[in-house]
Amino acid sequence: QGQLVESGGGLVQAGGSLRLSCAASGSIFRISTINWYRQAPGKQRDLVAAITSGGSTNYADSVKGRFTISRDHAKNTVYLQMNSLKPEDTGIYYCNSDTTLYNYWGQGTQVTVSS
Fold first, then answer.
1. Using an 8 Å Cβ cutoff, are 103 and 96 in contact?
2. Which is nearest to 69 in space by CA: 79, 56, 54, 84?
3. What tens digit of pLDDT does each residue of 55-77 get?
4. 1: buried, middle or exposed (CB in 10 Å: 19+, 13-18, 0-12)?
5. Residue 36: CB atoms within 10 Å
6. CA–CA distance from 97 to each of 43, 90, 93, 103, 106 (Å)?
7. Where are the beta strands (DSSP E) in 10-66?
């Protein structure tokens, strides 16, 4: 059994910053890749960033140089630091891990960037 819980969303002006957290409960996540997805209103859910258990990272082209994904194994938590936010970054951000046991999703956290 496992669970992913996101936090840290909110309303921010363009150019501002937010840090999202994904708290994982369950040891399976320590050996699994953790992903952040974003779903804008009326659009599909897209991958924003990913981090492997070893710390390798991958980013969508639209966020490269602005977002940083990291993980704290001791806390079993993954972070998404978002800088230089743009209105097009608005959406619900979901934490995900497609483990060997199950494809886990968090409940999502809303990020709204005003222009």
1. yes
2. 79
3. 999 999 999 999 999 999 999 99
4. exposed
5. 26
6. 21, 22, 13, 6, 9
7. 10-13, 18-25, 34-39, 45-51, 57-59
